[in-house]
Specification:
By secondary structure, this protein is an all-alpha fold. Helices cover 81% and strands 0% of the residues.
């Protein structure tokens, strides 16, 4: 837990800096400087490239996390694992690109009526796929070497910073929209190039594969993990991106733009989970290798509780300031109000289950995560198919809430069935009650005309009330210890 705690703190700091930049970008700049169609285009480009890259990586990110302990040997350059991963992923990229080119006529014809702005930029997806794939390989490689923070810095902070600069250049009319898309593409590409430079600088760019190290048993293991890793990883990315693609298909780029902006606020809740998941997955893989179930259960329980504390605070903070959010992004996006709520509630179910998918994917029964994610994918597509035509963008968010809730219940039942792992206790119930009471009290605070002052005072009140409840009900030992240290330092001064 020492590595997890140390890197979680560092990773969370950078992640929240990224959230701040994301707010500047998605909350202020994009809705005020770009049209809904233009915002929708940027998001659709990203969704296509993410989906295709996740398939093209051919499961090597999962292989890295699960089987890298067998390759780990600094003296022998980890038996050229990085080179093996790059070779396999290059083959995946070529196959994926061929499929994408083969679908050209279908995608372009579908886009003509409501998403014609996408057509001139159809081929921009290809370089974005290649470099997104490289980032996935390099980032996972650093993670298995116990450095999960560097990828967060380049992806969450540097990339968003570059996009913000590009949008500001567009605002001052120093570039046109076409140039903005080019710079946006380069910004998406940039983290992989920065990681490549870091690998060279750290002298760990070992790209010569040691194929002689891979015996038949290990080769079979790698093939099996890679196959189910493709299914699991691709399904996981598909469910995150399929809604925006289906919104674009049914409702057009303009509605995709509204969905993109409001969707961002609902995903803020996931920031602590993403950080902890990246870091804990490697430790969990090592624990499974040693059959150390006690460590796994300890991580599962502590992660669920600490992530729930952070997630629920973010939820009530966002919903308590919901009217202020639309004063920032503009009333044109008011149609997405309940998108924020439903996406946030959907993500809370993820937060409560903590790092459960990392436990399953690194376990001897890793195939089950693929089955669960296939089930989840079918649910997402089916519910989006039903609810988007009925309720528009709110229907897409409702589909996510229903699908994710069912999926997370299935994960919980699987972990309990197989190993009697379950993270919940009475403190989770107390935590929910504290959240409801805190949010209700915040609604009684009179609205201040200056929305910036209102956000500050309302958020301060929510945080104070919530923290008092957490502290006196002793929800988290770690939080109480940290607060006590702060109190002692204040008294000491």
């Amino acid at each position: 837990m020492g590595i997890i705690k140390k890197q979680s703190i560092s990773g969370s700091i950078y992640s929240y800096i990224g959230v701040g930049l994301g707010f500047v970008l998605s909350g202020i700049l994009l809705p005020n400087l770009l049209s809904k169609n233009e915002i929708g285009l940027l998001r659709v480009l990203l969704s296509y490239s993410t989906l295709l890259a996740q398939f093209a990586i051919f499961g090597m990110n999962t292989v890295a996390v699960k089987l890298f302990p067998s390759f780990r040997n600094p003296e022998k350059k980890h038996h050229g694992f990085l080179g093996i991963a790059l070779l396999v992923s290059l083959v995946g990229f070529l196959i994926t690109t061929a499929i994408y080119f083969g679908m050209h006529n279908f995608i372009v014809e579908s886009a003509k009526e409501k998403s014609s702005l996408f057509i001139p930029y159809y081929y921009y997806v290809v370089p974005m796929v290649f470099f997104t794939l490289l980032f996935g390989i390099f980032d996972t490689y650093y993670r298995v070497l116990y450095n999960a923070v560097i990828g967060i810095v380049y992806k969450e902070v540097v990339q968003r910073g570059l996009i913000i600069v590009s949008v500001i250049l567009y605002f001052f009319k120093l570039i046109n929209f076409h140039s903005l898309v080019v710079l946006y593409t380069l910004a998406i590409i940039s983290p992989s190039l920065f990681l490549l430079a870091a690998l060279v600088k750290d002298k760990i760019l070992f790209v010569k594969p040691d194929l002689s190290f891979i015996d038949k048993k290990l080769a079979r293991q790698m093939a099996s993990v890679a196959f189910f890793g493709i299914v699991a990883s691709y399904s996981g990315v598909l469910v995150v991106n399929i809604d925006i693609i289906m919104v674009d298909h049914y409702l057009g780029l303009s509605n995709a733009g509204v969905y993109t902006i409001t969707f961002f606020f609902g995903t803020i809740i996931l920031v602590p989970l993403r950080t902890m998941g990246k870091i804990s997955s490697v430790v969990i893989a090592d624990a499974w290798k040693n059959n150390d179930r006690k460590t796994i259960m300890d991580i599962y329980r502590k992660s669920s509780l600490s992530l729930s504390v952070a997630g629920l605070l973010l939820l009530i903070g966002i919903w308590g300031n919901i009217d202020n959010i639309f004063k920032i992004i503009g009333t044109d996006y008011q149609a997405g109000k309940y998108v924020i709520l439903f996406i946030a509630l959907a993500n809370i179910t993820d937060v409560f289950l903590g790092i459960s998918p990392h436990i399953i994917i690194n376990s001897p029964h890793y195939r089950w995560l693929s089955f669960l994610l296939i089930f989840f994918t079918v649910l997402v597509i089916a519910t989006n198919y039903i609810f988007i035509p009925l309720y528009g963008i709110i229907g897409a968010a409702l589909a996510s809430l229903i699908s994710k809730s069912i999926y997370n219940v299935a994960k919980y039942l699987f972990l309990y069935w197989k190993w009697r792992f379950q993270p919940f206790n009475l403190k989770h119930l107390y935590l929910i009650l504290i959240s409801i009471v805190t949010w209700y009290i915040s609604t009684l605070i009179p609205v201040i005309n200056n929305f910036i002052i209102d956000i500050i005072l309302r958020s301060l009140a929510i945080t104070t009330l919530y923290t008092i409840g957490i502290y006196y009900l002793k929800i988290s030992t770690d939080i109480n210890t940290s607060l006590n240290k702060i109190f002692y330092r204040i008294r000491g001064h």
